[in-house]
Write a structure and sequence with these properties.
This protein is of the alpha+beta class. The chain contains 9 helices and 14 strands. It has 2 domains: about 140 residues, Gcn5-related N-acetyltransferase (GNAT) (Aminopeptidase, 3-Layer(aba) Sandwich); about 150 residues, Gcn5-related N-acetyltransferase (GNAT) (Aminopeptidase), CATH 3.40.630.
Length: about 300
């Protein structure tokens, strides 16, 4: 496959609207309706959650991937097609990777049949049979994660402690610590906590985010949440939150956290993920001035 495959194209902006429609027709059931691919293209133009990526070679569209990417939920791969004469050269893998990068929480899902399931398995998707959704037709749920959680070990805390870029960031993450944050302080605190978790890149294990759980006042709390500066805005925060909520759901029905009033971005993030404020307390901020400590909670779904 030539290097021109690195050419990303906007299928919806091509002058020849039949070009993306022909590729779409390869990955959908049209039922003899020749106009259906064009109607689907129009849906991609009108629905803000729908996106269509295109891969080109020599100025020609040779592959497309259509996906839905809602906020705070898994992205769903809806359509994937590569020109028949170019299949097997990596174009499908690149298109899937593009969709995964766009997933707000780092999770991409797809549903497929027995003919295509091995393609998804080779790309690293977790495969789960859905049984016969239609008579004689077995369907499969496929899940690909950009990030994976693991238990934090001693060597991780020197990495995590370097992430706060300011006294305020260090305070929001670990109010009892100082600045610069010391690895030994963070490790000692983690030893008393529950489920200290490091979120890493699935591909190479690069640390992306950290958090833990702890008990206080007869409740389970989420604490010490921080995302590496290199992974902010890339779905790591949502993936970390999902992992911590799943771990907490094995123990309790409701999880709590404290978010600091000046940290408006975090407040909006948690509110958008279904967390509700239930109490506000006065506390001393990083510079000694009073700030609001907003207590939030979320009812968990047991897995």
């Amino acid at each position: 496959m030539s290097g021109s495959l690195h050419e990303w194209m906007d299928p919806l902006g091509l002058p020849d609207v039949d070009e993306p429609a022909r590729l779409l027709a390869q990955c959908m059931y049209a039922g003899g309706d020749a106009e259906r691919p064009h109607r689907v293209l129009q849906q991609y133009r009108e629905d803000r959650e729908l996106h269509l990526a295109g891969l080109g070679e020599g100025g020609r569209l040779i592959g497309i991937a259509g996906y839905r990417a809602p906020s705070h939920r898994d992205a769903v791969l809806l359509h994937l097609a590569v020109s028949p004469e170019l299949r097997g050269g990596g174009a499908g893998r690149r298109l899937v990777s593009r969709c995964l990068q766009a997933a707000r929480n780092g999770v991409l899902r797809a549903e497929t049949d027995a003919d295509a399931v091995e393609f998804y398995r080779k790309l690293g998707f977790d495969i789960r049979s859905l049984g016969e959704k239609y008579p004689g037709v077995e369907r499969f749920d496929c899940t690909l994660r950009r990030y994976v959680p693991r238990k934090a070990d001693s060597g991780d805390f020197s990495v995590v402690s370097a992430w706060p870029a300011s006294r305020s960031e260090a305070f929001y993450m670990f109010p009892k610590g100082g600045y610069p944050l010391r690895a030994d302080e963070l490790e000692a605190a983690a030893a008393e906590d529950i489920h200290p978790t490091l979120l890493t890149e699935a591909a190479d294990g690069t640390p992306a985010a950290y958090a833990n759980l702890y008990e206080s006042e007869g409740k389970l709390w989420l604490g010490n949440v921080i995302v590496s500066p290199d992974y902010r805005g890339k779905g790591a925060a949502a993936a970390l939150l999902e992992a911590m909520e799943a771990a907490a759901a094995e123990r309790v029905r409701e999880l709590h956290l404290t978010c600091h009033g000046p940290n408006g971005k975090a407040l909006l993030f948690f509110a958008g993920a279904g967390w509700m404020p239930w109490d506000i307390r006065r506390m001393e901020g990083p510079d000694g001035t009073p700030i609001a400590a907003v207590r939030m909670r979320k009812l968990l779904t047991h897995h």
